[in-house]
User: Fold Spore coat protein U-like protein from Roseateles asaccharophilus.
Amino acid sequence: MSFGLVNPGGRAASTGIQYACAPDYSEARLTRYYLLCLYIGRGDQSAGQTGRRLGNYNGAYLRYDLFSDPAHSQLIGAPGSNPVYQLRLLVPPGAYQSARANVHGWVYPGQVVPATHLFMEHGHEGRLRWRYGIKGFPESADCSQGGIAGGSTSFASAGVWAAYDNSCWVSAADLDFGRGPPPLSPVLASTRVSLRCPVGTQWRIGLDKGLHHDGSQRRMAGAGGYLAYQLYQDEARSKPWGNDAASMLSGSSDASGSIRHLTVYGRVPAQPSARVGSYQDSVVLTLYY
Assistant:
């Protein structure tokens, strides 16, 4: 089973196991009613764990599980576990009948791990038990008894794998300097930038000069002309925040890959001759990683 690219939102995948049941070849030519129970044990990365997990063989893990239904409500476990994944197949006399047991996988959301290695699990041992009757499907909780006869077979899995999506996301809120008369003294305001990256990711955030700059000075535009302003990395407003190597803000994601909240500090200098009106600008934020 391949989950493909996984991100903190989780990921679903599905696969199937083909099986075939033998008919009645006797002179009686009877229809057989098969009850089957499918089990899939844990693999090499899940031994001793309360659930399944994929490992990157470098100390990081992704939790996942296997289910019999696309709603991910009925777990598939090893023999002895409950609930049991049961299937039914009616086989007319004279010819084998095949069917598919669907297996649905789910990587749980909310996980942030390094994106540098592939996550895998091998060594799952599967077992298919069956019982059959000739007057209807047998009644059995685990396919160990009931009906006329039965049996079981083991099978191996090709493995489960996933790659963690090496991507980040970022969002920013508007910066509002509020309402007031032409500024006779500096006006201060701030807003927040939030970002999230895989564990260990080095990142930089740049802010461009905006739509209305004059080459060096950021400006808001309005009916009255322009209103100068500046954006900073620090509360003291001593480190302008720009989009070149010297003025970008840099950092790295922590060991949990949690969301980082950054503050953008704005300042409108005194401009007593500014005309009354509404002023605005658009600044492009770029996340480099």
